[in-house]
Each structure stands twice: as C-alpha cells, then as structure tokens.
Amino acid sequence: MADVSVDVPSPLRKCVIFCEVECVRLCCGIDAVSTDPALIGDWCRQVGSAAVIEARLQLAELIEVVEDRSHCVTSDFLNHRTHDEAARRELLDFLTALDAGLAAGDAS
Fold first, then answer.
1. Structure pTM?
2. CA–CA dist 21, 65 (Å, integer)
3. Which residues pair with 80 in a beta bridge?
4. Cα–chain-centroid distance for residue 51?
5. How confident is the model over 15-47, as pLDDT tens digits?
6. Mean pLDDT along residues 57-77
7. Residue 74 region, left (φ>0) first, then alpha (ψ -120 to 50), else beta?
8. Could you tell me which of 44, 65, 83, 84 has the fewest CB atoms within 10 Å of its CB?
C-alpha cells in the first residue's frame, strides 16, 4: 500500500498548534493535541468565523483523504502514519473531535 503525504494548511494548522497543550507533536504526535471543545472554542473566538469555516473545509478534505483505505496516510506535521486500521481510526477520531470542537466554537 502506497503512502500519501498530507499537509495541514492554515488556519487548521494554527488551530492544531493552539491546541498542542498535552505535549509536543514531535514527541507524542496527535496525542499532544487537546480536542477539548472549550479550548477549541477559545481559538474560534480569537480567529473569527471566516477562519473557522476555512479550517472546517480543510478538515473535511483531510478526513476524506484519511478515510480512503487504498493508501496509508502520513503527516509530518501531525507526526502520524496510518500504518494499520487502528492508527487510521485514531487519526479519524482525532479529526472528527477537532471538527466537533470547531462546529461548537463557530456556533458560539
């Protein structure tokens, strides 16, 4: 199975960096990033609705790529690789939680 490398563009990138409070991505990958809705909501309030909408669009595209099981997904930025189904599910759960936080933050 071939690897597909994905980038995380801004403003989604900035949201991930803002929520990187558990550790650092270089060390712990996506486990370093909190998906706490309150924290994501803080980011949403700081950047405004237009940036949140753009981040959600970027996230939807990223989720679509990760859901495609015909390849492995690697992200240097997130320090994650979907080498097996458990790793893919972990990444999808993370991205879905981010999206839920962004949706809630955009509504407030």
1. 0.94
2. 26
3. 75
4. 15
5. 999 999 999 999 999 999 999 999 999 999 999
6. 97
7. beta
8. 84
Q: DSSP per residue over the chain, as a string?
A: --EEE----TTHHHHHHHT--SS-HHHHGGGGS---HHHHHHHHHHH-HHHHHHHHHHHHHHHHHHH-TTSEEEETTTTEE--SHHHHHHHHHHHHHHHHHHHHHHH-
Please state, in angstroms and rounded to a whole number, the distance separating the CA atoms of residues 65 and 40. Answer: 23
Enter the tokens of residue 98.
Answer: 């981010």
Question: In this structure, are residues 77 and 10 in contact, taking their beta carbons and an 8 Å threshold?
Answer: no
A 10 A CB-CB count for 93 gives 12
